[in-house]
What we know:
The protein is mostly helical. It is 75% helix and 0% strand. The chain has 10 helices and no strands. The protein has helices spanning 7-11, 18-39, 48-58, 71-96, 99-102, 107-123, 125-132, 138-148, 153-181, 189-224. Helix 3 runs antiparallel to helix 10 (189-224). The chain is globular.
Amino acid sequence: MPPAFPLSSQLAVNVLDPHSLLASFGVLGVAAVLFAETGLLIGFFLPGDSLLFTAGLLSSGGDHGGLRLPLAPLLVAAAVGALAGAQVGYLLGRKGGGALLDRSHSKRLHEGARRAEELLGRYGYGKAVVLARFVPVVRTVLNPMAGALRVPLRTFTLWQAVGGVVWTVGLTLAGYALGSSVPNVDHYLLPLVALIVVVSLLPLAAELYRSRRAARAHKATEVRG
């Protein structure tokens, strides 16, 4: 059973800090954050990757500041939050179309939407939905974009479930394995979380680089022509 945390710690929670979220809300916080990050456009800034990795580490046993999460409920909560969030995002996009994005003034969110549309066009529905799980911001906007672009419901549901389970279970177990094999790993928690954030941004950075390189090549071709 997840530990009960005092109301004062819940009110002082830092939503950008995985350890603060976990200390305040436990496994239920994992489900809520992943639901918001993958289902609601306002959740694009939430720390999904680092939250999963940190939660896995804190479920590995040992003394992590008095905080330990049960692994089995954690895996279930993470998968349920991610899968339910993606499905809700898809349905919102199918109902509201592009109006959801039009209301946002976030350049980062609109850039993510463009990347999501490119993924769908380049890789096809199934592969794009799975890959998007591992790219911050894109995993937030691809689900409503898939709904707005009328990706078949059965196809989307199948592949978002595959991607969601692989993403949540994979990152959680990676943190669990590290916490189980490295003594006093909590002493290195901040650098590890920073590394996870950087690694999670690499696919997006690679896509940006390829896109800009292709744009420069296209422009050079037009100039020569």
